[in-house]
Specification:
disordered C terminus, globular, alpha/beta, 7-stranded mixed sheet, Aldehyde Dehydrogenase, Chain A, domain 2
Length: 320
């Protein structure tokens, strides 16, 4: 790459990030981190004399909805899949499932017991930094202060930490907004439900997230079209019988979602379409061929995708 295309700047505080967002040569910003940090950068970008786009990826707990059919056959395997997903990478994935809704039906007890066993016997996890580990432990303490039931592995010394499974009923979850906040680390919250109308109302009350997962059967999908319709408005990526921590860089991937998952749900921050955050459309009307940018002239092969002065263009589309 040409000099200046890529730079790595380190900062223990916020000064460098703030200075970059304010600098007149910076024309667009992308951020991955906390809701507090993302909102601060959004406000800085909007406060400039000439405001600039600020694409923030902030807070997501990626709910999992376990439907009744999922527990009819080998519920323990579903529990193992959820455990593997919320502890992958020490729970430091933005797509980590931090919330799971479990119906009170046959197989629920086996699912819950397997998840508790895996959590309580898990090894320690090493966090990216000591600060992240300390923030994780503080979030755990806040949940414990609420009196929420929990199952935990043996505590570890920072920057190592341990897995924790919290449990509550759906009424308590709906009336306590703290339980809807993201915990960055290897923990998840199991919400037990029995009334389907209450489940739908709870899904409707959720904030925006990157993903939502449905575990069940084809019949469950047919019987829960109303739930799916709600989730389609709440997330960028909807999964069926999978786990959200797998993110493939492809043309179809959507790694974005309604606020506060991201600041602009029309864009993805992973995949080939992610470049569209940093380009803008430009039109040359009635220009002669000789005056057009080279990538747009007739002698160029049709269908060639080019980056011209920071603008992504596809010749065949633009000439038409």
């Amino acid at each position: 790459m040409d000099a200046g295309v890529f730079s790595m700047l380190y900062d223990k505080g916020f000064a460098i990030g703030q200075a970059l967002v304010r600098h007149p040569l910076i024309r667009s910003v992308a951020f991955t981190g906390s809701k507090r940090g993302g909102r601060a950068l959004m406000e800085l970008a909007a406060a400039r004399e000439c405001p600039i786009p600020c694409f923030t990826e902030m807070s997501s707990i990626n709910p999992v909805f376990v439907l009744r059919g999922a527990l009819a056959n080998d519920p323990q395997s579903k529990a193992r899949g959820l455990y593997g997903s919320f502890t992958l990478g020490a729970g430091q994935f933005c797509t980590k499932p931090g919330l799971a809704f479990l119906p009170e039906t046959d197989g629920a007890a086996a699912f819950r017991e397997e998840l508790q066993l895996l959590t309580s016997t898990s090894d320690g996890f090493t966090m990216l930094t000591t600060g992240i580990a300390e923030a994780y432990n503080q979030n755990l303490a806040e949940r414990h202060a609420l009196g929420v039931d929990s199952t935990a592995a043996t505590s570890a010394v920072s920057p190592q930490t341990h897995a924790v499974l919290f449990q509550t009923d759906i009424a308590t979850f709906r009336h306590n907004t703290l339980l809807q906040e993201e915990i960055f680390g290897p923990s998840t919250l199991l919400v037990n439900w029995n009334d389907r109308k209450e489940l739908l109302a709870t899904a409707e009350s959720l904030e925006g997230h990157l993903t939502a997962t449905i575990l069940g059967t084809d019949a469950d999908l047919a019987n829960n079209e109303d739930l799916i319709a709600i989730l389609e408005r709440k997330v960028g990526r909807l999964l069926f019988n999978g786990y959200p921590t797998g993110v493939e860089v492809s043309h179809a991937i959507v790694h974005g979602g309604p606020y506060p998952a991201t600041s602009d749900s029309r864009f993805t921050s992973v995949g080939t379409q992610a470049i569209l955050r940093f380009v803008r459309p430009r039109c040359y009307q009635n220009f002669p061929q000789t005056a057009l940018p080279e990538a747009l002239r007739d002698e160029n092969p049709l269908g060639i995708l080019r980056l011209v002065d920071g603008v992504l263009t596809r010749d065949s589309i633009i000439r038409r």
